[in-house]
Amino acid sequence: METLLDKRYRVIRTLGGGGFGETFLAEDTQMPSNRRCVIKQLRPIQNNPQIYQLVQERFQREAAILEDLGGYTDQIPTLYAYFQLNGQFYLVQEWIEGDTLTAKVQKQGLFSESGVRELLVNLLPVLEYVHSKRIVHRDIKPDNIIVRARNHKSVLIDFGAVRESMGTVFNSQGNPTSSIVIGTPGYMPSEQAAGRPVYSSDLYSLGLTAIYLLTLKQPQELELDSRTGEIIWHRHALSVSPTLAGVIDRAIAYHPRERFVTAREMLEALQFGSVSPTVPYNQPPAVNNVQPAPTVSYNQLPVANVQPPATLQNTVAVSPGSASHQPVNQSSGHRGILLGALIAGGLIGASIVIGFALNKTPQPVAESTPSTEASTTRQEQQDVTQSVQSQVPSSSEPSPSISSKTSFPPLPPTTQQEVDRPSPEEAVQNYYATINQGQYETAWNQLSPSLRSNKRLHPNGYLSYIDWWGGQVESIDVEEVNLVQANTETATVNARLQYLMKTGKQIPGSVRFSLLWDAENSRWIVSDAN
Ligand SMILES: Nc1ncnc2c1ncn2[C@@H]1O[C@H](COP(=O)(O)OP(=O)(O)OP(=O)(O)O)[C@@H](O)[C@H]1O
């Protein structure tokens, strides 16, 4: 007699299988059309009654998230049902008829630039939505994007969240913990491999997906800059425009703070071409577009310089455990981080689970995303301190809100302009007032040309500047400005600041400004800041 799963679903064929269970194509015998669906079977990696209870709770929570996500857009499969049977968990999802990007490339060869652009423009709003729900997909790759045959829209399948709930184990202290990291070697950035995905981890994976489509190179086949750890791929895609190359470069930057912070930002860079043509691979880390990803201690990522098997691209679940012991060496760590963990765990080929119980609190998806708590990591503070180095004084018109009185030495007034000459402290105050009013371009133009073109501070020019001020900082409070020295041509001012970040955090900072008097425009400009 024919068996029906959950007395309802007739399995047509197996679509795939991995460490967590199998995936089936089935038909729903209780729908008039016998509509087709995909059934994902999931097995907890540790099986005892206490764990089962916990997994069950997490599974339910994650299924609710999938339901919510799939209900919003036709670019995420709809969740039809979920159930438990014989100690296993099942998700019943919409079957997306079409080809994965992997299958498409196999059929039609390389994607054109416009094909890749179209794909990104199509997918980035979906990612923006997913991130707005505090979810990091965690397994974006060509296999997990299906182009729907009906309307050619790209659909994002295989969210990592539910599989992660299957990794619940008890650690040696008897506390439940999430024992695994979900992701695919090569497509997964280092912070994710260390168990701390942030939103831009998905942008990184999407960037590598784009490179695959443009070059047919899997991430492991691409070289790394031995000094910076950045991926070298331009030589395999010589006809790609500088704008697209720049967008991809930024998405795949090693460090999250150098990447686009949001999917929207990446989309806009793609649409409006505002990314500088190339971000040289050998650049030092950007300091002016810090990603406020406070849960990641980048200087604590593990390093393992083990080369991966070149073709490995299956999703894996690995222990995030060793993430906190060895200092990161950005010039060489990169891909080795995860792969070391994989190989150390005995990975050969397909999906595996290394069920190390870790002394680590559980990390449901929402907690894996950038935190909004008020504390600040040392790294973040450092980043902020560095990133404020490019602030400039504002226009010569004193702002009514300025409270610090001028202590500029009296000058012999020669013209009305000279009489109205702002003090250096006022210039600094005005500069930040301009930023608080959202007049970023005006503020940018108050930087000296050499400061504006300082690649260390502004790797992508003005874009880096607005990334920081417009994208990450909510407002800035100037707590104190002190004049260090001044003459008619130059001045030095110290400023003590408090950044209110969009995440809700408050971060202190201090900057020493070097100002130059711009007589032609009767204003101070910032020639240096540190
Ligand atoms: N909703 C869906 N609609 C259509 N096909 C799907 C859907 N979900 C998964 N698939 C396909 O089913 C197959 C198996 O999916 P599964 O999630 O088990 O992935 P896998 O490739 O076997 O493993 P993994 O990606 O976890 O390494 C894949 O080819 C995938 O494209």
From TrEMBL:
Signal sequence interval, chain numbering: none
Keyword Signal recorded: no
Reaction(s) catalysed (UniProt annotation): L-seryl-[protein] + ATP = O-phospho-L-seryl-[protein] + ADP + H(+); L-threonyl-[protein] + ATP = O-phospho-L-threonyl-[protein] + ADP + H(+)
A Pfam family reported for this protein in Swiss-Prot or TrEMBL: Pkinase
Residues binding ATP, per UniProt: 40
Residue ranges of every copy of the Protein kinase domain listed in the record: 9-279
Gene Ontology molecular function: ATP binding; protein serine/threonine kinase activity
Comp. bias regions, Low complexity: 366-408
EC nos: 2.7.11.1
SMART domains per record: S_TKc
Transmembrane parts of this sequence: 337-358
Region (Disordered): 362-424
Keyword Transmembrane: yes
InterPro entries noted in UniProt: Kinase-like_dom_sf, Prot_kinase_dom, Protein_kinase_ATP_BS, Ser/Thr_kinase_AS
Top-rank taxon, per record: Bacteria
Cited PANTHER family: SERINE/THREONINE PROTEIN KINASE (PTHR24363), SERINE_THREONINE KINASE LIKE DOMAIN CONTAINING 1 (PTHR24363:SF0)
Protein name: non-specific serine/threonine protein kinase
UniProt organism field: Nostoc minutum NIES-26
Taxonomic lineage: Bacteria, Bacillati, Cyanobacteriota, Cyanophyceae, Nostocales
